[in-house]
Fold this protein.
Amino acid sequence: MALGVESDVARDFGAKPIDVISTKAALGAEVRDVDLKELNEFEFAALKRAWHDHQVILVRGQTLSDQDLIAFSRRFGDLDWAPIQETGRRFVEGLPEIYVVSNVTVNGQPIGSLGAGEAVWHTDMSYLDVPPMASMLFALEVPPAGGNTSFCSMYSIYEALPDELKGRIANLKIKHDGTYNSGGYLRQGVTPTDDPRASPGAVHPLVCTHPDTGRRMLYLGRRRNAYLMGLELADSEALLDELWSFVERPEFTWEHVWRVGDLVLWDNRCTMHRRDPFDSSARRIMHRTQIKGGAAPV
Ligand code: OGA
Ligand code: MN
């Protein structure tokens, strides 16, 4: 035991504990040549630093059981339970932490959420008062084409806003809708509504400061049923459209093309993500965990 620890220390001296290769886009980096089941504490600390620097981390070539995925996720903190499946059931018997994203059906029943259609830009579970700080998605089966996932940096988007617009939004609060998921499906137990003022959800500041990096970011969550508190609905819609016009700009995004064995970890506070549709006759199976946030966004 003592020997093992000493050799880890020795390996950390001088040499970088892990290889971090930036995507060169506004966000994202790949960590190469690691097995997430066996990261020592130095490698883990370096991976966490890279995650703070790059917001999204890709690690390819992993073989992870659900238990392995949960064990690695827990190194970041306690886990949130996954939202209930669109069918009202839990995804994986005995493992409430696992969220399954899949279009595959067994005996006519979907095994996961979000189908094969587009999943629109969103932050995970920001309809909670304390949303998860991170999510990680592990690819078990991927279609031959389509189903790519894009990420955008809410730091970069905030920094790019004209000063005049930054001024107008400085003290606003936004409601993050809890009615529909990013695939457009109604969440379990919720009454459908398209009135942003009446829909259930959590209210957060529109501009937040990241608790770990201290950087400012725009916090949009998702477009559908979003509402800027206290504004006339038409004014809220117009200002939201203005802010959302920055989201799709390629200079703020990075697109990931999946391979089986990819793990992608994102900072759920300062990024959003979306997924391309894919052929519904192809199979796509991803397992996700979500790491509890430490406090409500401020
Ligand atoms: C998610 C999600 C999109 C995808 O797991 O939170 O939005 O690419 N997934 O499967
Ligand atoms: Mn998501």
Observations:
- Residues 101, 119, 124, 135, 137, 149, 182, 273, 275, 286, 288 surround N-oxalylglycine (ligand 1) (CB under 6 Å).
